[in-house]
């Protein structure tokens, strides 16, 4: 199993500089790659640049960035710019984000997101491999001046159409907050889509998973809060209801806030879609994910009560 580290995944009330602390810890402990997620607080390319300047060796991936908000050339230019400034390989991850973010924060319509992802992934893949001297876009009089960023193209996918897009265009497919059972199902869908696409080898399969080794109450609450937003998402709500957390799912459907939902979820919910417990339990759970077909775990370390995720990232550091 390969491990990477997510410096920032989703909005919470942690300090705005916490992603930089996580990245510095990951770099010092020898992790290969750090993801700079994007949301209402951080621009992923700016954060990736800041991480590159604060660390010594980690490769960088910016995103997922929302394809309804950022156009393909701008995405590839952002990655190449970060690579030029940091001297590191820089990948980019694409996602569809949510209506709450795309329309509620950016003020643009989230229309046919799966189709937007398909168009964006095909275009970004081409732009990421453009060489200096070529037109910045076909037919343009402007020429590329930056080297290709050198990192992978990742597509965040869950639905069938997004999986087909990943199978056709991505170097890596990304899942988020999934159980081993979901990994097994999605791995099978990805392999089938790769076969239909006629590719000789599949994209690697990665998942962002919340992680907390020997968590204190604050860390556990933070993990449960990250789960709360998924209680009404199709494919997740059924899983939580089947596991006996139907009361929390119903509460989420009433519009309860994340803090209320986190209090309603029992502690064991954190371990359904993440790596939570003592070191041996977390390692055993990681083996379940590997057996289900996952190639890479992108650790989203709890930082509440564990600044920079130091305890968790130390316990799971690469051998």
TrEMBL record:
InterPro entries: F420-G6PD/mer, F420_Rv3093c, Luciferase-like_dom, Luciferase-like_sf
Domain of life: Bacteria
Transmembrane segments: none
Pfam families assigned to the protein according to its UniProt record, in alphabetical order: Bac_luciferase (PF00296)
Keywords from the named record: Oxidoreductase
Gene Ontology molecular function terms on file: oxidoreductase activity, acting on paired donors, with incorporation or reduction of molecular oxygen
Residue ranges constituting the Luciferase-like domain according to the UniProt record: 13-295
E.C. numbers: 1.-.-.-
Top EC class, one word: oxidoreductase
Name of the featured protein: LLM class F420-dependent oxidoreductase
Organism of derivation: Streptomyces ferrugineus
Lineage of source species: Bacteria, Bacillati, Actinomycetota, Actinomycetes, Kitasatosporales
């Amino acid at each position: 199993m390969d491990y990477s580290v997510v410096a920032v995944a989703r909005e919470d009330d942690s300090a705005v500089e916490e992603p930089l602390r996580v990245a510095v810890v990951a770099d010092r402990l020898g992790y290969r790659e750090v993801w700079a997620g994007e949301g209402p607080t951080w621009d992923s390319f700016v954060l990736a640049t800041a991480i590159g300047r604060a660390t010594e060796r980690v490769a960088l991936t910016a995103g997922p960035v929302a394809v309804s908000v950022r156009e393909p050339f701008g995405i590839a230019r952002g990655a190449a710019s970060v690579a030029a400034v940091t001297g590191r390989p820089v990948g980019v991850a694409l996602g569809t984000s949510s209506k709450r973010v795309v329309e509620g924060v950016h003020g643009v319509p989230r229309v046919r997101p799966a189709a937007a992802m398909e168009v964006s992934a095909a275009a970004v893949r081409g732009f990421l491999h453009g060489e200096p001297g070529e037109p910045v876009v076909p037919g343009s009089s402007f020429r590329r001046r930056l080297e290709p960023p050198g990192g992978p193209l990742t597509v965040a996918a869950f639905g069938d159409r997004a999986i087909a897009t990943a199978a056709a265009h991505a170097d890596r497919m990304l899942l988020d907050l999934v159980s081993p059972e979901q990994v097994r199902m999605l791995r099978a869908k990805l392999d089938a889509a790769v076969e239909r696409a006629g590719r000789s080898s599949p994209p690697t399969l990665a998942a962002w998973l919340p992680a907390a080794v020997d968590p204190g109450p604050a860390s556990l609450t933070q993990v449960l809060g990250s789960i709360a937003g998924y209680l009404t998402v199709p494919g997740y709500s059924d899983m939580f209801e089947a596991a006996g957390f139907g009361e929390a799912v119903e509460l989420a459907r009433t519009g309860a806030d994340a803090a209320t939902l986190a209090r309603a979820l029992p502690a064991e919910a954190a371990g359904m879609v993440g790596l939570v417990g003592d070191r041996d339990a977390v390692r055993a759970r990681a083996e379940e994910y590997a057996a289900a077909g996952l190639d890479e775990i992108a650790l989203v370390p709890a930082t509440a009560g564990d600044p920079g995720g130091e305890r968790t990232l130390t316990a799971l550091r690469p051998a």
